[in-house]
Design goal:
With 224 residues, this protein is mainly alpha-helical. Helices cover 52% and strands 4% of the residues. It contains eleven helices and two strands, in the order H-H-H-E-E-H-H-H-H-H-H-H-H. Strands 1-2 form a two-stranded antiparallel ribbon. Helix 3 crosses helix 4, helix 7 runs antiparallel to helix 8 and helix 7 runs parallel beside helix 9. It is globular, with a radius of gyration of 28 Å. About 10% of the residues have low confidence.
């Protein structure tokens, strides 16, 4: 062998991925589905590390909410295991009120619709009034939440509760109106909050006006 040949060093050969192997990797990568855009916040138990569940999520996961979500082609609905009017409000109504703070589907839908539907049954007032001391903190937590959708669910839930129990809510309003007063200064929520205050006065009667004006001095009565 010549000295020239001995002086040469071999250059390592680089492996080049073939087009077929690249295509295989791409094909195996999960692709987004069109339906992902419809429910971007749907709970996926297989994505990411597990985090501690909220009280409502834990109760729902154990099957302790006596209704299930039925997916329809146009809109979803709840199917109750037994007629809602036969269900005990304690602790279910409180759990549903706490669920108004949820931000993931299906928790958002189940808590919102369940809370509304229970308050519409015959005899709802008699069942809900003894629970007001526990319902008010849950609603307040939704009203001070930074998520705008959670706030709206809290406001709607408060109005629904007021419609169900009437003047019985007046003694508890002072605990809820501070957060509404703050939202009233935000143009984004002003109309919603004002409409909510008017309904609270409507369902709470004239005695509710003094409570509302103590926290929202600029409020004008619907009865004036």
């Amino acid at each position: 062998m010549s000295s020239t040949s001995r002086g040469k060093t071999e250059t390592p050969k680089r492996k080049v991925k073939s087009a077929s192997s690249v295509h295989s990797v791409t094909a195996n990568k999960p692709q987004p589905r069109p339906s992902d855009r419809l429910n971007p916040k749907t709970v996926d138990p297989f994505s990411g590390p597990l985090r501690a569940q909220s009280t409502f999520a834990a109760v729902y996961s154990k099957g302790d909410i006596p209704c299930r979500l039925v997916h329809g082609s146009v809109k979803h609905r709840l199917q109750w295991e037994s007629p809602p009017e036969t269900i005990h409000f304690d602790p279910l109504l409180i759990t549903l009120a706490e669920g108004l703070r949820e931000t993931k589907h299906p928790y958002t839908f189940v808590s919102r619709e369940g809370f509304k539907e229970l308050l519409l049954v015959d005899g709802a007032a008699e069942k809900a009034i003894p629970l007001l001391a526990k319902l008010v903190p849950a609603l307040k937590a939704a009203l001070v939440h930074t998520d705008s959708d959670v706030f709206e669910r809290g406001l709607n839930g408060l109005v629904q509760l007021s419609a169900a129990v009437g003047p019985a809510l007046n003694d508890h309003l002072k605990h809820l109106l501070t957060s509404l007063s703050k939202r009233l200064m935000d143009k984004k929520y002003k109309d919603q909050v004002m409409s909510g205050l008017q309904k609270l006065e409507q369902y709470g009667g004239k005695p509710s006006l003094a409570v509302i004006k103590s926290k929202v001095p600029t409020y004008s009565s619907i009865f004036s």
